[in-house]
Design a protein that fits this description.
The chain has 146 residues and is α+β, with helices and mostly antiparallel strands. It has three helices and seven strands. This is SRPBCC family protein. It comes from Streptomyces neyagawaensis.
């Protein structure tokens, strides 16, 4: 298995509320800095996204990508790359662990492989920045109740 980068944050909200924000792809442009457009292409029998097209602008990296999502129970979602202009692969997950009725630990894991050559150390640093920004944005979005 490829190396992955992981980070966790505690959000002052119930796990269901956190997952509600994670699953609301249409609102990603409102709270994630990098996602400029999000379109659900396919849903499962429960109405959860199975394939999502994302238009990303992360400064040096601009991409139009499609991700396939797998939902495991109520507290875990993972994704893998279907197609991209810039990436060879992308695998990630959010794992939610309730720490009380009103607090949830969220762990975000990410592995990215770009089509252009990049040192492993630089790639891990980029993954860490993406993860930390996403977790901070998620926390702010959930806790603001927006």
């Amino acid at each position: 298995m490829a190396e992955f980068t992981s980070s966790s944050i505690t959000i002052e909200a119930a796990a269901a509320d956190v997952m509600g924000v994670i699953a609301d792809f249409a609102r990603y442009p409102d709270w994630t800095g990098e996602v400029k457009e999000a379109e659900v292409l396919k849903t499962d029998d429960e109405g959860r996204a199975e394939q999502v097209r994302l238009v990303m602008d992360a400064g040096a990296i601009k991409d139009d990508q499609t991700l396939a999502y797998t939902w495991t129970g109520a507290n875990e979602v993972s994704w893998t790359l279907v197609k991209s202009q810039m990436l060879r692969s992308l695998d990630g997950s959010y794992i939610l662990k309730p720490v009380s009725d009103s607090a949830t630990e969220v762990t975000y894991q990410l592995t990215v492989d770009v089509k252009i050559p990049m040192l492993g150390m630089i790639k891990r640093k980029a993954e860490k920045v993406i993860i930390d920004r996403a977790l901070a944005g998620l926390k702010k979005r959930v806790e603001s109740g927006a």
